[in-house]
TrEMBL record:
SUPFAM superfamilies xref list: NTF2-like
Domain SnoaL-like: 13-113
Organism: Planoprotostelium fungivorum
InterPro entries linked: NTF2-like_dom_sf (IPR032710), SnoaL-like (IPR037401)
Domain of life: Eukaryota
Name used for this protein in its record: SnoaL-like domain-containing protein
Amino acid sequence: MLGDHEEALEWVTSFHEAGDSLNTKGLIPFYSDDAILRWANFPSIEGRENILNFFDQIFVDYVSMKHNIIKISVTDDAIYQEASVDWRLKNDKPDSVITLRAMAVFGRKRGEKSARWIDVYIDPAPLFQRLKELKSNI
């Protein structure tokens, strides 16, 4: 089981490194063609291309994003991950960072290269509020 945990941690770490690059091309291998993303309370997003388009639209507001894995647990068909995420936003003060806690569940069987679905549990209100404030100041 330790090997399963190490493999899952390596996969999740690589997934977040790809996302934290703010370049959606790096995320392509992590989503199956028909993947489903359920992020916060937004409607489900179906299909890899639609998921990448979703991230393309929100990444434009970020200077950087960093996922900090706190803990993962592995089952036969999913990875459960607790993390904090740090965002730096365009047009914000250089030292301003918004940090939010999140929980994600990756629908991925052991050894699979791509997730079939990902559920992200997060309250993005502080992030969206700050984005709204910054956009109103432009």
